[in-house]
Specification:
With 180 residues, this protein is mainly alpha-helical. It is 69% helix and 5% strand.
Length: 180
Amino acid sequence: MIIIPGELISILTFPGVILHEVAHKFFCDITNVDVYEIYYFKPFASTAGHVIHAPTRNIYKMFLIAIAPLIINSVVCMLLTFPHGATHFLGTDNIEYDLDLLFWIYLIIGWMGYSIGFHAIPSNQDMSNLVEMAESRIAKSILYILTKIIYIFNINYLGFFFTGLYTLALAQLLPYLFLR
């Protein structure tokens, strides 16, 4: 079996895939939308995970469920990558570390944070129905622009670049706000 890059990325960043689906499920729960099926992580599948929920005609509920990973994964990414991002602002980014337990904990927490941030962007499927549900012209325009931005983040190789930049920006945001 040949592993395509997207499948390889999802395997290497599986904590992000899992939290992406947990975020959808969490927002389904708080908006009282029934969930029919959930796969938190399916390696070697065309879709690494998914949540199938009941249809709703409430655009606010659909919007919250669709952007749930953007909210939850982004916040968790910022928290977990704070120690890594802080090294630049504290001037400790060039210190050599022994390969002791603390180093490995630091490394694993950083990998989890970046993996989670990498899957913060909603999928095209997550956003697909929002534009049609909007009733006002302004809401349709805003959702259309947001959906097109998300489509750019989800283009195979180009999207990896933009998603990586987004994740690096998240990793630097809290240290920048608190330590500069």
